[in-house]
Design brief:
Layout lengths: L3 H8 L3 H8 L8 H14 L5 H8 L4 E6 L6 H16 L3 E6 L4 H8 L5 E4 L5 H9 L3 E4 L2 H21 L4 E7 L5 H18 L2 E8 L18 E5 L2 H13 L8 E4 L16 E4 L2 H13 L8 H5 L2 E4 L16
Helix pairs in contact: 1-2, 1-3, 5-11, 8-9
Length: 327
């Protein structure tokens, strides 16, 4: 069986250097030395003993990523995948767990003696205190930052609909309690943009996503020329379906834009306008902060908004003058 001594000999360094680099302290060494050690370990098929390292360090190589209890759309799946890949590169194993409250949360997390916790949902002060008391590194996105991000998404959706010529704009959110905090912030962003630009804002549409719930949506939309900023692509497609049942044309009467850039939006009819969220930079910053043992760097809302891109589809394809484009 390959040992750390074999790796040290192969890389031309000491066993102590191998141990430190493979235990996440590679910042103490030159990039060339780190590369040599990791390459030697890969060539020899060396895997450090998890049990042994846990006994020595008091923590395992496990990182627990807490995910919010919301619909797991493409951006969240992508972020989790990227975090998992970056942690693996740094020598850690990522475990996923739904965020929750109460003693069961701490027992389940602390019982694994993780090196760190990445929380994609805000932790309570008590949860953070208990984790840090056990020397667990914690990286989380604050509620204030999350609200700001969702507000910026709503404003971007409204700005797109306004640019496309829709004279009235409404947000649309699902009737799902767990989505409410995020959906409310996005709806507020829509209202904020409309009020700032003098565009008529319509009461938020509450969309029941249950099968058959919108079989008679004739009173949902009111007059034509309505732009709808949907909470996500699932809600956007529900709005498109409801508009069709109501005898309204998309995008001539109702314009719709979602969020998530889901694959089905590119093959639907009409194709779906949406917001794409680029999360590669976010995942890198999260893992870097965890390995360093400090917090996430403070980014301005303007910097965060650069990660959002409007993907134009047919569902909001009015011209700025409010006429359907010629084909």
């Amino acid at each position: 069986m390959t040992s750390s001594a074999d790796v040290a000999s192969h890389a031309g360094v000491s066993r102590s250097t191998v141990s430190q680099i493979l235990n996440g302290h590679d910042h103490r060494f030159t990039p060339d030395m780190v590369l040599r050690v990791r390459q030697a370990a890969e060539d020899l098929g060396y895997r450090p003993s998890v049990a042994g390292r846990t006994l020595v360090r008091g923590t395992s190589d496990i990182v627990i990523t807490l995910i919010p209890d919301v619909t797991i759309g493409p951006p969240l799946r992508e972020l989790i995948d990227l975090i998992t890949q970056e942690l693996a590169t740094a020598g850690y194993t990522n475990l996923l767990r739904l965020a929750s409250t109460g003693a069961s949360f701490e027992d389940a997390v602390l019982g694994l003696r993780p090196m760190g916790v990445v929380s994609l949902a805000p932790l309570s002060p008590d949860q953070r205190t208990r984790l840090e008391a056990q020397n667990v590194r914690v990286v989380e996105q604050s509620l204030e930052v999350q609200i700001a991000i969702d507000g910026a998404i709503g404003r971007l959706q409204a700005a797109h609909l306004g640019r496309m010529g829709y004279s009235r704009i409404a947000a649309a959110m699902p009737l799902i309690p767990r989505e409410l905090p995020f959906a409310t912030a996005r709806a507020q962003g829509v209202r904020d943009w409309c009020e700032a630009e003098g565009v008529q804002v319509v009461d938020t549409l509450h969309i029941d996503m249950a099968r058959g719930a919108m079989s008679h949506p004739t009173t949902m939309f009111g007059h034509a020329q309505l732009g709808v900023a949907a909470y996500n692509d699932d809600v956007a497609m529900a709005v498109v379906g409801a508009a069709s049942k109501a005898g309204l044309r998309v995008p001539a009467d109702i314009g719709v834009i979602g969020v998530d850039n889901a694959d089905f939006g590119g093959v639907s009819s009409p194709t779906l306008s949406t917001i794409k969220l680029d999360l590669a930079l976010s995942s890198h910053a999260i893992v870097e902060a965890l390995v360093r043992g400090d917090g996430l760097p403070t980014s301005s809302l303007e910097d965060l908004s650069r990660q959002f891109t409007v993907i134009q589809g047919e569902s909001s394809a009015l011209t700025p003058s409010g006429r359907r484009p010629n084909h």
